[in-house]
Design a protein that fits this description.
Blueprint (H helix, E strand, L loop, with lengths): L2 H17 L1 H10 L19 H22 L1 E2 L8 E3 L1 H4 L4 E2 L3 E6 L3 E3 L6 E4 L5 E2 L5 E3 L11 E4 L8 E6 L3 E4 L3 E7 L2 E4 L5 E4 L11 E3 L10 E6 L10 E3 L3 E6 L5 E3 L5 E3 L11 E5 L10 E6 L3 E4 L3 E4 L5 E2 L4 E4 L4 E3 L6 E4 L4 E3 L3 E6 L3 E2 L6 E8 L2 E2 L6 E2 L13 E5 L10 E6 L3 E4 L3 E6 L2 E3 L4 E4 L1 H27 L1 E7 L5 E8 L5 E6 L1
Antiparallel strand pairs: 1-3, 2-4, 4-6, 5-8, 6-7, 9-10, 10-12, 11-14, 12-13, 15-16, 16-18, 17-20, 18-19, 21-22, 22-24, 23-26, 24-25, 27-29, 28-30, 30-32, 31-34, 32-33, 35-36, 36-38, 37-40, 38-39, 41-42, 42-43
Keywords: Disulfide bond, Glycoprotein, Membrane, Repeat, Signal, Sushi, Transmembrane, Transmembrane helix
Pfam family, one: Sushi
InterPro entries: Compl-Cell_Adhes-Reg, Sushi/SCR/CCP_sf, Sushi_SCR_CCP_dom
Length: 514
């Protein structure tokens, strides 16, 4: 009974060998000599163990072929910022060669015309095409900002717009908005802000004085103070200080007044008298704030001090009243020089003492020198005293600002490093920096700004112009081209048109056209 299974197994092995391509190849090579090799190998039998070896080889080949086929797939495509896989492909982990996937544009993006939303796994196991097929959507332009500037370089999804106001204005609302997704489209996440003129608190009141009130006090508003009339029989009030102040900006861009208000006070200086001298101008009899008096000495006397004095707010004269001293053999008063100064300056000098006379800027002595030395010769006489002659001052360094003014740092002439602050008059907008620094040779850094008409002023002018032109055109039409007439066609198809035209000279003209 046991011999039967052995025979079946042997038969199976023999069948496997007979069917094996390797056995067929072996038979072809060995030919008929295989049968003469002796026992253990018949015409359809394998050497011992060769059948099992062939089975193992076949299994290994099949496995290797399977792995090779398994490697011929694409990995999931990379994540794209502008698009995503459709739902049917989003969960797949492997993609055989030739697989085509479809994308949809992400929110905020849209399909580029002419581009396909498909990508294919190629034989090189790479996804193609690689160029973008969705582009960012664009928001509308946020609009113009009156009295301000819109800073925007891009309108695409995710971009930002920034806003800033001109000098003297401050922003109300957000200074920055972003282009975002809204209702499957894109739009700004905020509204356009607006620029309002920086306000100032009402100007301070002063005792015994007033200013003219206005409805609002905003940037560039100027107020001027005046003093009340004094009661009958009392001394008048004097306005001490700068009469006008204006609303400007501090370092934090808040509205502040340009300076303290003036004062209205009674200022009364005594009637000045100089022995051995007399008044040349300013004869009083009352002397209030800023009143001036000019003196000169009698013959035979020389002046010690200044010849012009002014009444100050503290009821005193400045500089102090001069004195007139008798001319002597060995003394001199300070030499008088126009457009220059005496170094060292003293009230009097002894005979033989020397001083320097130095001319002011842009001035010189007749020989071109800017400084000379003179000597006291006694009897109030100086050697070679000359006056300085001044050249016309060229204000090349002073910036020219049409429709604007300098509010801080103004000088007749500027030196390197001097800075000024500029503002435009009401109705004009500053284009450029409001603070500039003098670099020398007539150059400023940054460049001197300009003042242009504000947008709303230009708009008003345009509207008025359009209205006037329209009215004029309508009048010309009614006056010159208003026509009346008739049109007929007779039985012979002859057309007749009679026009009656009104002309400025009130002349009538009838035209017949056939």
């Amino acid at each position: 009974m046991a011999a039967a299974p052995s025979r079946r197994a042997a038969g199976t092995a023999q069948g496997a060998c007979a069917a094996s391509p390797a056995l067929r190849l072996l038979r072809q090579r060995r030919g008929a000599g295989a049968a003469a090799m002796g026992t253990g190998m018949g015409s359809g039998t394998c050497p011992p163990g060769l059948g099992m070896l062939l089975v193992v080889v076949v299994v290994v080949v099949v496995v290797l072929l399977g792995e090779a086929r398994a490697e011929e797939v694409c990995s999931p495509p990379e994540r794209l910022q502008y698009a995503e896989l459709t739902e049917s492909f989003s969960t797949m982990q492997s993609f055989p060669v030739g697989t085509t996937v479809t994308y949809v544009c992400r929110p905020g993006y849209m399909k580029i015309p002419g581009k396909s939303l498909d990508r294919t796994c190629g034989k090189d196991l790479r996804w193609s095409p690689t160029e973008e097929f969705c582009t960012a959507r664009k928001c509308r332009h946020p609009g113009e900002l009156e009295n301000g500037i819109v800073h925007v370089t891009d309108l695409t999804f995710g971009s930002q717009a920034n806003f800033s106001c001109h000098t003297g204005f401050r922003i109300h609302g957000s200074s920055e908005i972003t282009c975002v997704v809204k209702n499957k489209a894109v739009d700004w996440d905020g509204v356009l802000p607006f620029c309002e003129r920086v306000p100032c608190e009402p100007p301070p009141s002063i005792a015994n004085g007033y200013y003219t009130e206005v409805p609002e006090y905003v940037y560039q508003t100027t107020v001027t103070y005046r003093c009340n009339d004094a009661p009958r029989g009392e001394d008048p009030y004097s306005l001490v200080g700068t009469p006008s102040i204006f609303c400007t900006l501090d370092g934090d861009l808040n509205g502040v007044w340009s300076g303290p208000p003036p004062q209205c006070k009674v200022v009364k200086c005594e009637n000045p008298k100089v022995p051995n001298g007399k008044k040349v101008s300013g004869f009083g009899p009352l002397y209030s704030y800023q009143h001036s008096v000019t003196f000169e000495c009698d013959p035979g006397y020389f002046m010690i001090g200044q010849d012009v004095i002014t009444c100050q707010e503290d009821n005193t004269w400045h500089p102090p009243q001069p004195t007139c001293e008798k001319v002597t053999e060995d003394r001199c008063g300070a030499p008088k020089i126009s457009h220059g100064q005496v170094i060292p300056l003293q009230s009097e000098y002894k005979q033989g003492e020397s001083v320097q006379l130095r001319c002011n800027l842009h001035c010189a002595f007749p020989d071109g020198a800017e400084e000379i030395t003179v000597t006291c010769e006694g009897q109030n006489t100086w050697s070679s005293v000359q006056n300085c002659a001044c050249k016309p001052v060229h204000h090349d360094s002073s910036p020219v600002i049409s429709h604007g003014r300098v509010i801080y740092g103004q000088k007749p002439e500027y030196a390197e490093g001097d800075s000024i602050t500029i503002e435009c008059y009401a109705g004009y907008t500053l284009h450029g920096a409001d603070r500039i620094v003098y670099m020398g040779e007539g150059k400023w850094n940054p460049e001197v700004p300009t003042c242009h008409l504000s947008a709303y002023v230009i708009a008003i002018i345009c509207v008025i112009t359009v209205v006037l032109v329209s009215l004029a055109a309508f009048w010309v039409y009614k006056k010159c081209f208003s026509q009346e007439g008739s049109y007929t066609v007779d039985e012979n198809c002859k057309e007749t048109c009679i026009l009656k035209t009104n002309v400025p000279a009130e002349m009538e003209e009838t035209a017949q056209m056939t």
